[in-house]
């Protein structure tokens, strides 16, 4: 029988039906370990001093592990021992490129030093990410690293580099920026473009906790994206971050707090077991 390829819209409709009516196909639902109802991934971009000062102690207090996406130009030599040490304690170090290129309408596209994504080809962007992987390996000794798109952008020179990046094995998983989606259906997991809730400047714990509650209610996963916590930029107050961590600790029977790659590895195995 000839196989008919479904369109993205058809796949989305099918996923909705499978997850909205689980009796139709139980295998489409995500089954979390240990009877958990949801998973939460706490991710932190740019490797900022406030993350060292506030985030790590708050996570360590409850034995939670976060994912810290570092970019090369912002990694100082005297910070390397710190990042190496927390990696050994179970925190994940992720790839955020070397120069953190985003689309910049004011950039001089004729300059050899242009760092706007418009100035990159797909090949050049993939090469930068691969080189950053080598730097990450020198820090944590790991051969694989997840990726976070700077500014949540994945178009280099007008072309989408997310697919080629995974196809070439540069990374297995890549996180977006401000998308806020809760994924609760195996058929809708896109490892090249994992959605995240961006906790911006002045965000209160209530907003982040409500996002977690959505994941619990839907039986899915939530990814929260932070920059500064208690300092630096795009700053969430350290006390508000602490409230979120305390909430997760109080609901540890329902919520699995895992690193980005840890949770996605688990989902990848579930998906592979379906086939």
Stretches with pLDDT under 50, minimum 5 residues: 1-6, 22-27
Helix content: 25-40%
CATH class: Alpha Beta
The N- and C-terminal alpha carbons lie at a distance of: 18 Å
| Named CATH architecture | Alpha-Beta Barrel
**CATH H-level homologous superfamily name:** Glycoside hydrolase/deacetylase
Count up the domains.
1
- Number of DSSP-assigned strands: 10
Radius of gyration: 19 Å
> Which structural class is indicated by helix and strand composition?
alpha/beta
Question: Helical region count?
Answer: 8
Q: What proportion strand?
A: 5-15%
H/E series, N to C?
HEHEHEHEEEHEEHEHEH
Shape by Cα distribution: globular
CATH fold label? TIM Barrel
Structural description of this entry:
The relative contact order is 0.19. Helix content is 37%, strand content 13%. The strands form 3 sheets. Strands 1, 2, 3, 8, 9 and 10 form a 6-stranded parallel sheet that branches. The protein is globular, with a radius of gyration of 19 Å. It has helices at 8-20, 49-61, 80-88, 122-140, 162-167, 205-218, 238-250, 260-274; strands spanning 38-45, 67-70, 92-95, 147-148, 155-156, 159-160, 174-175, 197-198, 221-226, 255-257. With 275 residues, the chain is an alpha/beta fold. The protein contains 8 helices and 10 strands. It has one domain: TIM Barrel, CATH 3.20.20. Helix 2 (49-61) links the parallel strand 1 and strand 2 (67-70).
């Amino acid at each position: 029988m000839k196989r008919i390829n479904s369109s993205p819209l058809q796949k989305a409709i099918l996923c909705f039906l499978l997850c909205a009516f689980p009796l139709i196909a139980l295998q489409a639902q995500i089954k979390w370990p240990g009877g958990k109802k949801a998973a939460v991934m706490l991710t932190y971009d740019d490797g900022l001093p406030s993350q060292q000062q506030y985030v790590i102690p708050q996570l360590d207090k409850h034995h939670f592990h976060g994912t810290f996406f570092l970019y090369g130009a912002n990694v100082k030599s005297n910070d390397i021992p710190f990042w190496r040490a927390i990696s050994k304690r179970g925190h994940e170090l992720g790839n955020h490129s070397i120069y953190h290129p985003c689309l910049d309408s004011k950039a001089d596209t004729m300059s050899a030093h242009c760092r706007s994504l418009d100035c990159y080809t797909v090949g050049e962007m993939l090469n930068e990410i691969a080189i950053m992987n080598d730097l990450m390996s020198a820090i944590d000794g790991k051969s694989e690293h997840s990726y976070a798109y700077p500014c949540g952008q994945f178009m280099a020179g007008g072309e989408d580099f997310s697919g080629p990046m995974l196809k070439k094995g540069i990374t297995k998983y890549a996180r977006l920026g401000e998308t806020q989606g809760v994924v609760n259906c195996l058929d809708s997991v896109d490892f090249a473009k994992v959605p995240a809730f961006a906790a911006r400047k002045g965000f209160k714990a209530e907003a982040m906790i409500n996002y977690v509650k959505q994941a619990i209610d839907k039986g899915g996963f939530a990814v929260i994206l932070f920059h500064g916590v208690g300092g630096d930029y795009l700053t969430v107050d350290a006390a508000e971050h602490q409230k979120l961590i305390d909430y997760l600790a109080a609901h540890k029977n329902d919520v699995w707090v895992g690193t980005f790659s840890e949770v996605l590895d688990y989902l990848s195995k579930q998906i592979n077991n379906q086939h």
